[in-house]
Amino acid sequence: MLLIDLPLIEYGRAIVVQKTILERKVASGGPDVLLVLEHPPTVTLGIRGKRSDLLVPEERLREAGIGLFSVDRGGEATYHGPGQVICYPIVDLRSLGITVRAYVRRLEETIISALGVFDVTGFRQEGKIGVWTAPKDKIASIGIRISRRIAYHGFSVNVELQANPSEFIVSCGMPEARMVSLNDLVPRRIAREDAKAAIAKSFADEFRVELEPGSLEQVIS
């Protein structure tokens, strides 16, 4: 499986990259890919997302430099931005031999294990997809899409968010939820590169795959 570590990339561009990889996998196979990256400030509305999840007018988001996208992943409104590690696995669930439900559960386990590297306890909550560190404190969001048994979109882990999403959206349809960051919970600052490395290793361990460094040119050129 290829691990492609990208710099800050605009959300729309990341969607194009994912769908290009997806289409090539459908047409002619090719390696599974794990994209690891960050986005500039962006709000996405999943297939259950509603304009009423926005707490400010769209023009206010634009004025603040926050992009807005309606997308085909599961879930509702989610914020992405600097200080968040985002992972987009484009993987064939048939080759992994797992169901969609098992895939989501193993993504959650990936995040929980990665948090444990830094002595932070994450957990699931019944009926709520994602990972939490307290009953109302959410540290990671998951939203995926399956096309011909190939998964894309993925998950985000807050490392040191530079914005408070509750000021402008109802995150994941849960007004009571508060987005927290890894660096809110540890005594010493954790660099994003260290968080990326822990998440990638946890993903490889959980899915029993070997991650080989790759480049975007390998999968979209």
Describe it for me?
The chain contains six helices and twelve strands. The chain is α/β, with parallel strands linked by helices. The protein has a single domain (2-210), classed as BirA Bifunctional Protein, domain 2. Strands 1, 2, 6, 7, 8, 9, 10, 11 and 12 form a nine-stranded mixed beta sheet that branches. A three-stranded mixed beta sheet has the order 4-3-5. Helix 4 crosses helix 5. The longest helix is centred in the first third of the chain and has 18 residues, at 11-28. It is globular, with a radius of gyration of 16 Å. The mean pLDDT is 93. The active site is at residue 172. Its EC number is 2.3.1.181. Pathway: Protein modification; protein lipoylation via endogenous pathway; protein N(6)-(lipoyl)lysine from octanoyl-[acyl-carrier-protein]: step 1/2. It is found in: Cytoplasm. GO terms for molecular function: lipoyl(octanoyl) transferase activity.
CATH homologous superfamily classification? Bira Bifunctional Protein, Domain 2
| Shape, principal axes of CA atoms | globular
Task: Give start-end ranges of low-pLDDT stretches.
Answer: none
Tally the beta strands: 12
Distance between the termini: 18 Å
Give me the strand/helix succession.
EHEEHEEEHHEEEEEHEH
- Structural class call reads alpha/beta
Q: Tell me the radius of gyration.
A: 16 Å
Give the helix tally: 6
SS strand fraction: 25-35%
Taken together, the total number of domains comes to 1
For this structure, the CATH topology is BirA Bifunctional Protein, domain 2
What does the average pLDDT come to?
93
Q: Main sheet?
A: 9 strands, mixed
For the record, what CATH class applies? Alpha Beta
- What is the share of helical residues? 25-40%
Keywords: Acyltransferase, Cytoplasm, Transferase
Pfam family, one: LplA-B_cat
EC number: 2.3.1.181
Family: Belongs to the LipB family.
